[in-house]
Amino acid sequence: MADRYLHFTGTAPGRFLTRRLGLPRPVALRRWSPGAPALDGPLLHLTAGDSGVTERLGSLLAATGLSVRAHAERPAGIVLDATAVDTPGGLAHVHSALHPVVRSLAPGGRVVVLGVRPSADDHHQAAAQQALEGFVRSLGKEIGRGATVQLLRIAPEGVDAAESTLRFLLSPRSAYVSGQVIELTAAAPGPVADWAAPLAGRTALVTGAGRGIGASVASVLARDGARVLCLDVPAAHDELAATAERIGATALPLDITADDAAERIADAAPDGLDVLVHNAGITRDRRLANMPAERWAPVIEVNLDSVLRTTDALLKSGTLNRGGRIVATASIAGIAGNNGQTNYAASKAGIVGLVRSLAPRAAADHGITVNAVAPGFIETRMTAAVPLLVREAGRRMNSLAQGGLPVDVAETTAWFAQPGSAAVNGQVVRVCGQSLLGA
Ligand code: NAD
């Protein structure tokens, strides 16, 4: 369903009217395309206070191929290193660094504030670093013109581990990700021979890949070099076969809730899996008072139970290779809750619990990371079926004032999936344009 309002606000009368009436003014977002630069201009590298990582961060940013400067009239990206800020007084450096330049940021620009984890032993440092979260989330809401703002907490001893994440956040791949706090470990990144095909030589399985977000995930993983297995229910066979053929993948018609699902997946991937994407999901909306068990059970079964079961079985059988990546699908409904979705929100909040608990153990035992995407309003068949007024509200109630595209969820998944993303573990990243729901 085309976003006609977004199109209208891009015209001269649209700009005039929305400004006069104080209506949301979404800007068409640029997505990644081959050959196009990651940023439409220079990247400003700023520092708040005396950072100990300036030099290493400088070389890492230079390695991305972006045009990194200490001064620029019209930057397309800003990285502010605030890792040294450890007192409320130190926050003044954050203000003095960004205040003069934020207005000159190009449309669709990127701001990444680098911080560190708030300390458990030093409450002054913890206060100052936590302050950055409120700062970033507020700047994301006010910056406008399609720009995004994130807080990236790094482990100072593991600056290099941040490369895949900085490349993602400083590019159109993260067009619909804003207001996020992402915390990295110091885990050494796996080797990336070619940033244009970071998944070369890897095998990925995507559930629910016949259509919608799953089809886009499969396509982006294939674009990034992976050999892809597309799984969907046998009833979706034709759609699944068409998707698989279009992207050069293998179709695996299988209901993920089947008792032998993990065995069938293992049989289909004799060399093991490097990337497992749990995307299949269903809704059976009804308010709790009107919800019979028949509408409760399948949602928990497909969205959560089968994810737990297949993950456990594939880890146990060794089908998931060392250095592998598990990406699950939550939802902002699982974070904020939603009217008529007690079953769905419970299942998606369960995914968040799974990720947080399993991530450290999977990394320690198998070198495997576990993360989740939490989509907001994404333009799919599912959201096209939502009544007009609710749909319009869903589209506009976020900092970017528009719905996201399946490719936005896919790009986030592909970043998690990269060998270079070993330090990204236990994260739930919302792909929601900084939705006002559960912000
Ligand atoms: P969709 O309904 O278009 O696609 C889901 C796919 O999963 C379908 O192809 C379906 O056949 C498949 N599937 C369902 N049950 C299955 C099973 N038992 N075994 C195998 N495959 C099965 O949905 P979508 O909008 O593309 O959503 C994809 C994921 O993203 C879901 O987990 C959904 O909950 C989540 N999500 C979507 C949005 C959104 O705005 N579209 C928002 C938040 C979260």
Q: Can you walk me through this structure?
A:
By secondary structure, the chain is an alpha/beta fold. It folds into 2 domains: 39-183, 3-Layer(aba) Sandwich (Rossmann fold); 203-431, Rossmann fold (3-Layer(aba) Sandwich), CATH 3.40.50.720. Helix content is 39%, strand content 16%. The chain has 15 helices and 13 strands. The chain has helices at residues 4-9, 12-21, 54-63, 91-98, 123-143, 163-169, 212-223, 237-247, 261-268, 293-316, 332-336, 342-366, 381-384, 388-396, 406-417; strands at 43-47, 68-69, 77-81, 110-115, 148-153, 181-183, 203-207, 227-232, 250-253, 273-278, 320-329, 369-375, 428-431. α8 links the parallel β8 and β9. α7 runs parallel beside α8, α7 (212-223) crosses α15 (406-417) and α9 packs across α10. The radius of gyration is 21 Å and the shape is globular. Nicotinamide-adenine-dinucleotide binds next to α7, β8 and α13.
Brief sketch in words of this structure:
The protein is an alpha/beta fold. It contains 15 helices and 13 strands.
How many independent structural domains?
2
The CATH architecture designation of the largest domain is 3-Layer(aba) Sandwich
The share of residues in extended strands comes to: 15-25%
Count of DSSP-assigned helices:
15
| CATH superfamily heading of the largest domain | NAD(P)-binding Rossmann-like Domain
Main pleated sheet = 7 strands, parallel
Estimated helix fraction: 25-40%
Under CATH at level 1, the class of the largest domain stands as Alpha Beta
Layout of secondary structure:
Elements: H1 4-9, H2 12-21, E1 43-47, H3 54-63, E2 68-69, E3 77-81, H4 91-98, E4 110-115, H5 123-143, E5 148-153, H6 163-169, E6 181-183, E7 203-207, H7 212-223, E8 227-232, H8 237-247, E9 250-253, H9 261-268, E10 273-278, H10 293-316, E11 320-329, H11 332-336, H12 342-366, E12 369-375, H13 381-384, H14 388-396, H15 406-417, E13 428-431
Helix pairs in contact: 7-8, 7-15, 9-10, 10-12
The structure holds nicotinamide-adenine-dinucleotide.
